[in-house]
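#structure-requests
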Amino acid sequence: MLTENEIISTLEMLRNEHLDVRTVTLGINLADCASHSPEVFKRRITEKITGLAGDLVNTCDRIGKKYGIPIVNKRVSISPIAVVGAPFESDELVDIALTLDEIAESVNVDFIGGFTALVEKGMAKGDRSLIHAIPEALSRTQRVCASINVATTQAGINMDAVLLMGKTIKRAALLSADRDGVACAKLCVFANIPQDIPFMAGAYLGVGEADAVINVGVSGPGVVKKAIDREIGAKPDLGAVSEIIKRTAYKVTRIGELIGREVASSLNIPFGVVDLSLAPTPNVGDSVGEIFQSLGLESIGAPGSTAALAMLNDAVKKGGAFASSYVGGLSGAFIPVSEDLNISQAVENGLLSIEKLEAMTCVCSVGLDMVALPGDISEDTLAAVIADEMAIGVINKKTTAARLIPVPGKKAGDFAVFGGLLGESTIMNVKNLHGENKFLNLGGRIPAPIQSLTN
């Protein structure tokens, strides 16, 4: 139960500390739209998505106004297109992506996720077609997001898919070169992707989900920072600091579930999960990186950052798990470079390298997220960076992802601007080997680790 003071502090979070519901995401199952005809499929998905999502934005705005809690983004996630659109060729899938973009615009949602393939153990025809379609699909649309799961702890790492994703990312960057390769900002490569992520670019509706479901993403890095700032003068030990973060995460999660359940009830759609992820924005005061400074570190990336992030991530999950029986998605701390002003500045100041960032992804909720890289990075080097990140997820039985943006025509130290919530960042330096990576090009599948034998 919350005390009177805690209720007052929750109101303060809303007024002055950037607390919001970051996204309400409506998941829609498109399995019953399947057809061998692209035209029939497009007509069916248009009817189903517009029918279910037509009132999503108005409902969110009304409920947000009722409680005085802003719902920043309204989004739709759909069944993996590589599955429900399996009969189609890559050019037909590009056309389907354009239709999805038009649907998203018509219902006024910010993004639609689910241009997705799950290829951790191998690639079917629909998977290959979708991956080949990604560069053109993402460069020609504004609101479509894609995700490819190339690894799981149960299956290992599909290195053929990893190599293909290196080529795909490079091609997507070139097709959006006039916008600093922004198409890549809408593409995530995953290990152990959850089925219920409300956050983009990874959101899709898993095959084990309901016909339609409401998932909510709540964020509050500014709230956590302020909570630490209020108590740090009393010099609490790190156990006490963890308790502060946990109690703050509890209050934030309760708010998210309240909003999510009311939206779901109003739309007569089941409520799914609340994803409590400290997802920053490029705004001052809404930064995960600033939390590290409140904890006494010079900057994110300084020695001690991995330990601080591990504590932060764990405390957030504990608070969320106590607050709700339906915590899902990713739920923890994100460290997306360009989307967090403080993290971007740490890169610019030379305090955060890609090697340190990779080390920190062992204990965060996502991985190498929104990382701008030199435009001349080779396809094999991109694939190798992805493979390393996937290995962290597979061995540690956690979700990891790589959202890498090679910026055409720019080099390490230059600046890339992606706009809006995607932010901007100094381009990180990476050891770029232009020759063939013989290890990766052996191909095949790195077998599942011993940790997978849990039955």
